[in-house]
Amino acid sequence: MLQNFYQSKYIEAGCDEAGRGCFAGPVFAAAVILPKNFFHPVLNDSKQVNEKNRKELRKFIETNAISYAVAMVDNNEIDSINILKASFKAMHLAIDELKIKPQLLLIDGNRFIPYKKIKHQCIIKGDGKYASIAAASILAKTHRDDFMKRLHQTFPQYNWQKNKGYGTLEHRNAIQQFGLSPYHRKSFNIIPPQMNLF
User: Cys-Cys with 86: which of 17, 57, 78, 82 at CB 3.0–4.6 Å?
Assistant: First the structure.
């Protein structure tokens, strides 16, 4: 059972990212402020929720959240600053867009680069513990999946509509056969030896 709030004194925003471990595409992050009475029976860490329920949850969250925002950092910037910093930057960009300023940030994971002067609390596996982080994980995941499905139309050989850019065997084999696209993360050392780039 997810807890609605970490504490009751400050306005909380839950933050999470999606796509950190992918071979291709951007990293997405979301920040969500939920009302006190927010509840949905299947809300959980996005990895524990099937695609149909994630879509339903996204609509419910976007309709009922006090404020939410989603942001992304592309693969070129990931290569430039590294994936961890890019994940934090995406979270910062999402927090920037919130219509209400939070007083406490709940961050999924064990590290974070502080955002301005707002306090934060890192929570390992927080997306399975707190509703706002779970909601952020759903939004980040669904927005990123939609982005990768759109990219699939241009680069169908990698089957991103299915693997979403993760390093599945099928995706690795496609890289071996077709080389890297402009959306692959070069810093992840995924290019096989003697392989040409597009």
Answer: 78
